[in-house]
Write a structure and sequence with these properties.
352 residues, binds 4'-deoxy-4'-aminopyridoxal-5'-phosphate
Length: 352
């Protein structure tokens, strides 16, 4: 086929590879950072109350009920909230809206693998900044002139978070660019900077219902930012699609937000399981980073990540390992239920 038939830069794009989907329900799936618990019973009630006839109608064009509920939860206004089909969609919209300078955008070298995909696709120049040997992000690296900054907090796949001091210093030193903080895992961590939206009009904070709210299949994500930045995101959102979210997604997300007790209880359960699992893995000779997420990033002192991955896979447990420089010997293990983690630890103990 003639080269003219596709955009040349697409050749450089490495499509994001999602965790392998098991072929049956018996597989323990710990490879996509999904929540092991179901969404709130209030979500179930919404779905059970639906009639097929409702699908005739278009959804709310601006997801106003959801935006209002989200704004209220974090002490902002609806005009400070943008919603999209998962935070991937929201992040892609923000990249499209804000990263259009000749200067490169900056993000850590070990981070969420979608950032380079969007940069290549949208022809955004970028420069990665090396995290240190302990995978810590150095604030000094993010003080040079740039066309924007993206930091996931906590970072993935390292599972490490930064605190308020880091984020404030980042914002103070980047007042002429847009700073995106990707908070996909923040509910399992220690610090969300969403409050700083009131202070910094160059800050965009993205979050998701996929992890802490068990709604990955529903595809709901959001951004919080100044009203001006949100208006630009509205302007470029999937260009002329007036309906960024479907009606069922809007209503289930609102139902999830109305059940704060359930949300807090499941997050606490995942965190407790995470910390117990990390402790036991350390006793087996793993270096496990101090996770602020719903997954563990770990390396064994003797066995390779690939060996462990393969053994677990043969025993019906799917985890991730990374075929990339610096992290090629690390496993990323999503936190499942206590029973799932016990089984995983049992299998690890057979080889470690
Ligand atoms: N940011 C990070 C750091 C992630 O790991 C993920 C999940 N793969 C996302 C954003 C996107 O999640 P979602 O689109 O499901 O909201």
């Amino acid at each position: 086929m003639s080269e003219k038939l596709w955009r040349k830069n697409l050749i450089n794009i490495e499509p994001y590879v999602a965790g392998e989907q098991p072929k049956n329900d018996k597989i323990i799936k710990l490879n996509a950072n999904e929540n092991p618990y179901p969404p709130s019973p209030k979500v179930k009630a919404i779905l059970e109350g639906k009639t097929i006839a409702e699908l005739r109608k278009y959804p709310s064009a601006d997801a106003s009920v959801l935006r209002a509920a989200l704004a209220e939860r974090v002490g902002l206004k609806s005009e400070n909230v943008f919603c999209g089909n998962g935070s991937d969609d929201v992040l892609a919209t923000a990249f499209r809206a804000f990263f259009n300078s000749d200067k490169p955008i900056l993000y850590p070298d070990i981070t969420y693998s979608f950032y380079p995909v969007w940069c290549e696709l949208l022809k955004i120049p970028y420069k990665t900044k090396s995290v240190d040997d302990d995978f810590v992000i150095n604030i000094e690296d993010f003080k040079e002139p740039n066309g924007g900054v993206v930091i996931p907090n906590p970072n993935a796949p390292t599972s490490l978070g930064v605190g308020e001091k880091f984020i404030r210093e980042l914002l103070e030193n980047n007042q002429d660019s847009i700073v995106i903080i990707d908070e996909a895992y923040v509910d399992f961590g220690r610090y969300s900077c969403v409050e700083l939206v009131k202070e910094y009009d160059n800050l965009v904070v993205t979050q998701t219902f996929s992890k802490s709210r068990s709604l990955a299949g529903m595809r709901v994500g959001m951004a919080f930012a100044s009203a001006e930045l949100i208006s630009y995101m509205q302007a470029v959102k999937d260009s002329y699609n007036s309906y960024p979210l479907d009606q069922i997604a809007i209503e289930t997300a609102v139902a999830s937000l109305s059940d704060e007790d359930y949300f807090k209880a499941t997050v606490e359960k995942v965190k407790a399981t995470r910390d117990r699992t990390a402790k036991k893995m350390r006793e087996m000779g793993f270096n496990v980073l101090d996770s602020e997420t719903n997954f563990l990033f770990a390396q064994h002192e003797k066995l390779s990540a690939k060996e462990i991955f393969t053994y677990l896979r043969e025993n019906g447990i799917f985890v991730r390992y990374f075929n990339k420089p610096r992290i090629d010997n690390f496993l990323r293990i999503t936190i499942g239920t206590d029973e799932e983690m016990e089984l995983m630890l049992e299998k690890l103990s057979e080889i470690c």
